[in-house]
Amino acid sequence: MYATTDSLATTPATQGGRSRWLALYTLCAGMLMIVLDVTVVNVALPAIQDDLGFTSSSLAWVVNAYLIAFGGLLLLAGRLGDLLGRRNVFIAGLVVFTIASVWCGLAGSQEMLVIARFAQGIGGALTSAVILGMIVTLFPEPREQAKAIGMYAFVASAGGSIGLLAGGVLTQAISWHWIFFVNLPIGVLAIVLAVKLIEKDKGLGMGRGTDVPGAVLITAALMLGVFTIVKPAAELGWTAGRTVALALLTITLLICFVVREATAANPLVPLRIFRSRNLSGANVVQALSSSGMFGIFFLGSLYLQRVLGYDALEIGLAFLPTTVVMGLLSVKYSEKLVTRYGPRRPLIAGLLLVAVGLALFTQAPVGGSYVVHVLPVLTLLGLGGGIAFPALMGLSMADVRPEDAGLASGLIGTMGEVGAALGLAVLATLAATHTNGSTSLQALTNGYHFSFAVAAAIVAVSVLVAYIFMRPSKNI
């Protein structure tokens, strides 16, 4: 399926059967640590604010510093994996993330924590950007690859809800510092296993693909774009002068990047990669579906907390059904569905289930019952995500050349991260605006309902994109 080239002659695909699966578990462990960190921090934010004296506005930087570094560097990190060797970049990311996690846990000031979170974002980008590219080289056979991607998709998508539970337990039982310290043993174990279990890959070398101006342009554009979404757009509004100015600057940088890549001898991102309808369509679907799903996990948590009165631990437990259902489908059944029906049909079916679940959430009332109004929604989200995301990951990599696997992996991750940040900012803004300034439970619920409906519409658009643009691939 993914034939090796001279520059990639020692890819992990040469590993034996058992060691390949052990290597996959190592990759998934690294990914789980990265994904958990996103939501585990959200649960601990009130405790962090009280301990370090953050204001409500400055507290956002505990999250934003990570998102800006992570989202801004994913694409570059993926390409560095192709050039320097994906194993090298993966291990380097684990080292940076683990050290930065300890730094976060030891933070005794606002500035120290924010800087450490930015460093965590760098490590997270290096680690996660190359994982999907490593999986498709580890498992070139279609059936095994579908199963492996199913496991990866489960960790990448369901790990967030596990983070809610872990964050609640650690914060309430010990202290917020331990949401970061817990990464130390996991990170060290993942590094040791990666060194032992994952074979070295040579990479293309910095002589092929080195494009410093392109790297500067795309990293600056993505970081500025994420910053614009999570800061001025969320706080000042989408039509504010500062928001518009930064958005225009982001677009200008992106245009300059495209021009650079079209004319560079060794582009960072060869534009030929977008000739694949599956790759291009998968990235659009990833951005749209992430916008709907990530925003709803955030707003759904607020509904449970502010309207139904749940505490942090109860919120984590409430989202467990999504994790369980998604894990069961991703690990046990996604490979069978993709093998029997191809990836396109499961993708569309799964996205439809997600859209229905989001639409159903608009019916959750002020005095809602978890069993009647929340559990069915979370079950549908788990069903849809467990079916759709493994198929989407497979389609995104189906027509990619081996030498571009890291780039494609970083690209799909970047679109998911930017889509999630954009979705969160838009949906949270819409929910707040729709309350008309009222803090009553009914007004809050109405605001959430409006955002749930918009999220359902966004995911419905992703269904149309998948139906129109995605096509069965000769490699699947």
UniProtKB/TrEMBL annotation:
The UniProt entry lists the main location of this chain as membrane
What is any one of the record's Gene Ontology cellular component terms?
plasma membrane
Q: Would you say which domain of life the source belongs to?
A: Bacteria
Query: Annotated Gene Ontology MF terms?
Result: transmembrane transporter activity
User: What is its subcellular localisation?
Assistant: Cell membrane
- What's the protein's topology in the membrane? Multi-pass membrane protein
Question: What SUPFAM superfamilies does the database record attribute to this sequence?
Answer: MFS general substrate transporter
**Nucleotide-binding as UniProt keyword:** no
Q: Which regions form coiled coils?
A: none
Q: Which UniProt keywords apply?
A: Cell membrane, Membrane, Transmembrane, Transmembrane helix, Transport
Q: Where are the transmembrane segments?
A: 21-47, 59-77, 89-108, 114-139, 151-170, 176-198, 210-230, 236-259, 280-303, 315-334, 346-364, 370-393, 405-428, 448-470
Q: Which InterPro entries match?
A: EmrB-like, MFS, MFS_dom, MFS_trans_sf
Residue ranges annotated for the Major facilitator superfamily (MFS) profile domain, each copy included = 23-474
Any keyword Transport?
yes
Q: Do you know which PANTHER family this protein is assigned to?
A: BLR6921 PROTEIN (PTHR42718:SF46), MAJOR FACILITATOR SUPERFAMILY MULTIDRUG TRANSPORTER MFSC (PTHR42718)
Name recorded for this polypeptide: DHA2 family efflux MFS transporter permease subunit
Organism the protein comes from: Kribbella antibiotica
Recall the taxonomic lineage recorded for the source organism: Bacteria, Bacillati, Actinomycetota, Actinomycetes, Propionibacteriales
